[in-house]
Amino acid sequence: MRHSRWLDRLTAAAVRGVWDWARVRGRITSSNPGRYRFAHLGPGAALSFPLGALYNERYMAIGEGTLVGEGVSLAVGWPGEDFGEDIVIRIGRGCSIGRGSHIVAHLRIDIGDDVFFGPYVYVTDQNHGYTALDTPIGRQDAEDKAVTIGDGCWLGVGSVILPGTTLGRNVAVAAGAVVRGSFPDHCLIGGVPARILRRHHVDDGWHAGDVWPAGEPGWPRAGDPGGAAGHGVSSL
Question: How many CB atoms lie within 10 A of CB 223?
């Protein structure tokens, strides 16, 4: 029995040692990209081991010092799809992509500098159609709309960024939010669908989203897809 416990401890220590070695050696960096050929992988950028899905990386540009966490999936189109000379996923400098997140692009996803993802964030620029009554939804034609996430944004754990979304600079997205539409600089958004909860005014600081002065710059105009009911509610 004593010998068995000793052997179990030895085996566990060996497994942990191998795993720690693999996590270090398996990282993808600009100096050690392995078989991967990115359009750009900046100095100090690293993709942690193990990754999720990673394909068509030649259409991805990742900036200096950006860290991609474990289990993150980065996908452009379908494996082997040709996008010519286009950069389809662009991630800026100094970003952190939380573990288990997915960035799935078919047209363009542009992420600015110093953007931080919590774990399990999902960003996509494509939705399936659903209106053909006799065709399974997964086989219907998809619609692509570019996504832009501005410098300095924070995306909370489990948030979902849908096609056509534009986030301004330093936008905080609450955990679990489902985001679609356009949102201005310096605001907090949350909910399903996401709406502005707080926003900064240059003259007198932060306001609740529902008391933003009508007529001020950034107030949703009639027909603005980024706002509804005058409160910056993003329609799904």
Answer: 6
- Cα 202 from Cα 103, distance rounded (Å): 33
Does residue 179 contact residue 161 with C-beta atoms inside 8 Å?
A: yes
Q: Is residue 217 part of a domain?
A: no
From 40, 102, 106, 128, the catalytic residue = 128
- The Cα–Cα gap between 51 and 47 comes to 7
Would you say residue 200 lies in a domain? yes
| Calpha distance 112→60 (Å, rounded) | 14
224 inside domain: no
Residue type, 211: V
Pick the closest to residue 100 from 74, 72, 123 (CA basis).
72
Tell me phi and psi for residue 56, to 5 degrees: 60, 40
Distance CA 121, CA 156 (A): 7
The rounded distance, in Å, linking the Cα atoms of 105 and 163 is: 9
How many other C-beta atoms are found inside a 10 Å radius of the C-beta of residue 32?
A: 11
* Residue 128 is a catalytic residue: yes
Domain containing residue 180: 36-211
Task: Give the tens place of pLDDT for each residue, 149-208.
Answer: 999 999 999 999 999 999 999 999 999 999 999 999 999 999 999 999 999 988 888 888
Specify the pTM: 0.84
Q: Is the pLDDT of residue 95 over 80?
A: yes
